[in-house]
């Protein structure tokens, strides 16, 4: 590849002034998170890369008295701008110039995981190779000599096993010495085919003087040759038009160069690996391939997936639901306590705290146990390597709705709560598939919506309540599939994004990684309940109490009466319409709202409702309620993850139309049938 | 993503035509720039040896390439041309 001068040593950091900046790079499934968690523990912060929806993890630690800042770059297979992650990783190294880049590679798939190293070496930051999973490689029958690899690469190689904490002190010492400039650094860079080398030089000359900071010229030339879309766009803007035309002509003549460049990297890797691997993997069949015969089988794979998911539901309802019940009682008691304490205070203050703050945000917090169970199960399945198999067996079914396997898991998460479902779409590379998954996720009936069904259905349908619940769930899934197929055809012209993914080795769970993942996700949910959800709860509470001090004369009721003509089409009167609107804060609010409107406690409410509305109206209401605009937290997540107000509004509008149409269909058809009978 | 056939090559077949257990050598890639780039990155470069771990004749398939297991949708597997390794 290029032969640009990488700085031989790096200026030693001034101790006490600024922490040493270490970037952690690596392909997915090489144990990068395990290493990151081991080094930083709870001293880590999870956020987003500025303006992007890719998770950014950063932490700090001290070693030998010096403090370090560790940035976990997104897991990527290469540094060509195929995805946002790859772009973020390389931009970080080019712009922030970390003191050391630790490239984590998997000893059990050494060739493949050195590909990223081949792309990292030409960048202007010193690289240390952390040769991870040495124990797994040994189990697979592979033997590697790290010293030989180190000599061949010309950069420090530290053998280790992050799961067992083996090699950690050596790695830290190497990082320290590299950051202080005490280690020689003379990487052997991948070579490029002689005719391409000439082309590179030609391009390099043409773009000289026009390459924006901080990009190295020869790196830019190489990326142009590879056809990197981002670099191509950047240079098209930076170069005068006639210069760009010249460069473009040269590139057009070599538009197959990306194959040669990638092959060149793998040839370079092959030479390194041949020297360092003393015993290659022999043809034995490992545990992973034996398990995969079952987990990825077109029939048994689906049976296993169904059992895993069934177990998850069972856990949710036997462990999560009672815990949620206790929390609900706790929140209720807290509200009563506060009401008692504020007996002498103005009524609005008491109402604000008990109905607005505790009743709104507090009610949402009671979902935490169910969410923790979901987060735990997902983190566990991800960590042991099962998730990729689930995506694989669902690929065929997901094709029917214009998506592929990777969209299945986020959608499934939606049964617990739509918010993690929307956040979970981050695993999908293509923006098109991701947007479609985000659009469909709210159609998965979450536990809060099913709680409303569970409350109302028995009052109206008696023994058939369970059947009605199942029909509602199946209807939602059917509508989800139809919407997916239609939206994909109309908005994305039936395009389908490529399904290509690695199936990692199965391995024993790492409890530290799982625990930290649950902790981070729960924390972010609680933070959201304390900010966005709290604010919305208070606003809706205010609308339900002002100006008159009671719900019947409130702004909310006026809106409900104003919207009643629309609701009537689906058989809903103004009270049911208001209940529907209030479900925007949190789905189970609609029960609370009906309780207020009918001046009934929850015990008497079901009976009063059954006496007021016909089963047909109840069914129409349940259909609308199940498909209606998701709660405020979900809408907020949609806005955050799509980074677009228009997509958020489109999603809300679409669900509004779908839910009303479905409700109308049920009510009108039901009424027509009833008339006929 | 274009779906034109790859440059003609007499004895190469789409990867999807290889049965479970068969070994092939990648001959060429077709398909759009970004799909090719992703496949190359995962080690599917011309000359790479590929072992088919699972192919039921429909739906996605699993191959082993460079010691890693890679799942490919059927459409993607059709865009990889491979020569059967005798044996």
Helix segment count of chain A?
29
Tally of alpha and pi helices of chain B: 2
CATH class value of chain B: Mainly Beta
Specify the helix fraction band of chain B: 10-25%
What overall form of chain A do the CA principal axes indicate? elongated
CATH homolog superfamily of the domain at 20-179 in chain A? P-loop containing nucleotide triphosphate hydrolases
The rough form of chain B would be described as globular
What is the makeup of the main sheet of chain A? Answer: 7 strands, mixed
Spatial ordering of strands, largest sheet of chain A: 2-3-4-1-5-6-8
Distance between the termini of chain A: 80 Å
What's the CATH architecture of chain B? Roll
How many extended strands of chain A?
10
**Roughly how many Å apart are the termini of chain B?**
35 Å
Most strands sheet of chain B: 6 strands, antiparallel
Characterize the structure shown:
The complex is a heterodimer of chains A (about 675) and B (about 90). Chain A has about 675 residues and is an alpha/beta fold. Among the domains of chain A are: about 20-180, P-loop containing nucleotide triphosphate hydrolases (Rossmann fold, 3-Layer(aba) Sandwich); about 195-280, Helix Hairpins (Orthogonal Bundle). Chain A is about 65% helix and about 10% strand. Chain A contains 29 helices and 10 strands. Chain A has helices at about 30-40, 85-95, 110-120, 135-140, 145-155, 170-180, 195-205, 215-225, 230-240, 240-255, 255-275, 285-295, 300-340, 345-365, 370-385, 385-400, 410-415, 420-425, 430-440, 445-460, 465-490, 510-545, 555-570, 575-580, 590-595, 600-610, 615-625, 630-640, 645-675, and strands at about 20-25, 45-50, 55-65, 65-70, 100-105, 125-130, 145, 155-160, 275-280, 500-505. In chain A, the strands form 2 sheets. A 7-stranded mixed sheet of chain A has the order 2-3-4-1-5-6-8, sandwiched between helices. Chain A has a two-stranded antiparallel sheet with strand order 7-9. In chain A, a hairpin with a 6-residue loop joins β2 (about 45-50) and β3 (about 55-65). The longest helix of chain A is centred in the middle third of the chain and has 42 residues, at about 300-340. Chain B is α+β, with helices and mostly antiparallel strands. Chain B has a single domain (about 10-85), classed as Ferrous iron transport protein A (FeoA) (SH3 type barrels, Roll). Chain B has helices spanning about 35-40, 75, and strands at about 10-15, 25-30, 50-55, 60-65, 70, 80-85. A 6-stranded antiparallel sheet of chain B has the order 1-6-2-3-4-5. In chain B, β4 and β5 (about 70) form a beta hairpin. Chain B starts with 11 loop residues before the first strand and ends with a strand. The model of chain B is unreliable at about 1-5 (pLDDT under 50).
């Amino acid at each position: 590849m290029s032969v640009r001068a990488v700085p031989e040593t790096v200026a030693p950091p001034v101790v006490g002034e600024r922490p040493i900046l270490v970037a952690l790079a690596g392909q997915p499934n090489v144990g990068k998170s395990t290493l990151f968690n081991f080094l930083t523990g709870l001293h880590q912060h999870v956020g987003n890369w500025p303006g992007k929806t890719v998770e950014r993890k950063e932490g700090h630690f001290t070693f030998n008295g010096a403090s370090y800042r560790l940035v976990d770059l997104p897991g990527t297979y290469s540094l060509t701008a195929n995805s946002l992650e790859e772009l973020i990783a390389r931009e970080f190294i080019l712009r922030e110039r970390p003191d050391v880049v630790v490239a984590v590679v998997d000893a059990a798939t050494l060739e493949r995981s050195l590909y990223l190293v081949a792309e990292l070496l030409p960048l202007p930051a010193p690289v240390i190779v952390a040769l991870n999973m040495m124990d797994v490689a040994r189990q697979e029958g592979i033997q590697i000599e790290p010293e030989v690899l180190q000599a061949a690469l010309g950069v420090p190689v530290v053998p280790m096993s992050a799961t067992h904490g083996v090699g950690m002190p050596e790695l830290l010492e190497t990082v320290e010495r590299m950051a202080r400039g005490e280690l020689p650094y003379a990487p052997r860079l991948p070579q490029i085919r002689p005719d391409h080398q000439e082309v590179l030089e030609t391009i390099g000359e043409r773009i000289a003087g026009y390459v924006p900071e901080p990009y190295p010229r020869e790196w830019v030339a190489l990326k142009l040759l590879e056809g990197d879309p981002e670099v191509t766009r950047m240079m098209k803007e930076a170069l005068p038009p006639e210069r760009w035309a010249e460069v473009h002509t040269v590139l057009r003549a070599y538009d197959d160069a990306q194959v040669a460049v990638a092959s060149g990297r793998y040839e370079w890797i092959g030479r390194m690996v041949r020297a360092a691997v003393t015993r290659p993997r022999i043809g034995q069949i490992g545990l992973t391939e034996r398990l995969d015969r079952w987990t990825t089988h077109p029939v048994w794979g689906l049976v296993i997936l169904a059992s895993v998911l069934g177990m998850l539901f069972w856990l949710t309802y036997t462990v999560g639901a009672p815990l949620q019940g206790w929390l609900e009682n706790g929140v209720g008691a807290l509200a009563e306590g506060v009401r008692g304490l504020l007996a002498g205070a103005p009524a609005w203050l008491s109402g604000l705290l008990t109905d607005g703050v505790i009743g709104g945000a507090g009610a949402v917090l009671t979902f935490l146990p169910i969410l923790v169970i979901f987060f735990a199960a997902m983190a566990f399945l991800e960590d042991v390597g099962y998730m990729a198999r689930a995506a694989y067996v669902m690929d065929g079914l997901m094709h029917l709705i214009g998506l592929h396997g990777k969209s299945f898991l986020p959608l499934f998460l939606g049964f617990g709560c739509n918010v993690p479902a929307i956040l979970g779409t981050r695993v999908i590379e293509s923006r098109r598939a991701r947007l479609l998954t985000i659009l469909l996720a709210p159609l998965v009936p979450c536990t809060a919506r099913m709680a409303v069904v569970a409350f109302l259905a028995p009052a109206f349908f008696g023994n058939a309540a369970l059947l009605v619940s199942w029909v509602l769930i199946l209807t939602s899934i059917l509508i989800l599939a139809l919407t997916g197929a239609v939206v994909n055809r109309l908005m994305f012209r039936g395009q389908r994004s490529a399904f290509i993914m690695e199936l990692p080795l199965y391995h024993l769970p790492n409890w530290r990684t799982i625990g930290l993942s649950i902790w981070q996700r729960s924390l972010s949910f609680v933070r959201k309940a304390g900010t966005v959800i709290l604010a919305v709860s208070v606003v809706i509470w205010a609308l339900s109490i002002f100006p008159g001090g009671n719900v019947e004369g409130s702004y909310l009721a006026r809106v409900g009466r104003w919207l009643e003509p629309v609701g009537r089409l689906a058989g809903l009167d103004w009270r049911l319409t208001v209940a529907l609107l209030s479900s925007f804060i949190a789905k189970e609010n609609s029960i609370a709202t009906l309780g207020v409107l009918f001046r009934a406690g929850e015990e008497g409410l079901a009976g009063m409702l059954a006496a007021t509305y016909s089963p047909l109206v109840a069914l129409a209401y349940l259909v609308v309620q199940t498909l209606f605009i998701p709660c405020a937290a979900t809408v907020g997540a949609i806005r955050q993850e799509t980074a677009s107000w228009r997509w958020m509004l489109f999603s809300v509008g679409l669900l509004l139309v779908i839910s009303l149409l479905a409700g109308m269909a049920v009510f009108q058809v039901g009424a027509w049938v009833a008339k006929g009978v | 993503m274009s779906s034109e056939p790859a440059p003609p090559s007499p004895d190469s077949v789409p990867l999807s035509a290889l049965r479970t257990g068969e070994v092939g050598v990648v001959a060429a890639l077709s398909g759009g720039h970004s799909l090719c780039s992703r496949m190359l990155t995962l080690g599917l470069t011309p000359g790479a040896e590929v072992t088919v771990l699972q192919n039921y004749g429909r739906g996605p398939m699993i191959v082993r390439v460079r010691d890693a297991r890679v799942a490919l949708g059927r459409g993607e597997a059709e865009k990889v041309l491979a020569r059967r390794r005798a044996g």
